[in-house]
Amino acid sequence: MQQQPSVIASGDYLYFAPAGQAFNIPAAGVVSNSAKPDPADPIWLTFGLGTVAKLPQDKRTSKAVTIMQPTIQGTIVPFNILRPQHELTMEVTMNEMSRLALTGFYKSPLIGLADTTFYPLTSSSLQGWLKRVRWQNGAPWITDDWWADLDCEEFTVVEPNIIQPKFKFTWLGSAPSTLNVSGI
Which CATH entry fits the domain spanning 10-65+72-183: 3.10.450, 2.30.110, 1.10.1740, 2.30.30? Predict the structure, then answer.
C-alpha cells in the first residue's frame, strides 16, 4: 500500500463483461448486477476493451443537503452539510476499436464475435461489469470493478487516420453492493 503521496506514471487496460453473458468461474452463471465473473474467467478476455490512449477522467459529483440552525441572535446559519447523493463517472479514450465500441456508439444489441451485421439504434443501453487495471511500473497497482452503464460517445480520429473510441462509464449500484470494489 502506498504510504506517502507520489507521482504516478501509469497505464490502464479495460475489460467489460456484458449483462446477460454466461461465465464459468467461480461457478456457472450469467453476468448481472448480482453476479460477477472471477478475474480468471475468460469472459474478461472475450470482451476486452484494450489499452487506454489517455488516462481516464474519473469524476464524482455530489448533491449537498444543508441543515440549517438558528444562532442565539436568531440568524439562521448552516449547521451541517450532508452529501447523500453521489454519481461516479469515468470518461476514457481507447487505443483500440472493438465490437463493444460499435455496440455502444450505434446503440445496437451486443455485437458478438460471430456477428457480421448489427442494427443501429435498436437498444437503449449496455450494462455490465467494467474491470479497470491500472498499471504502475509494469505491475498492477489499482483494480476497479464497477457495475456500470457503457456509452461510447464518439469516435475521435487522430493522425494518421486512427479511430479512437471515447467511452463514458457511469457507476451503478449492485446487489450486493460489495461487488463494486476497488483494490490496491
Answer: 2.30.110
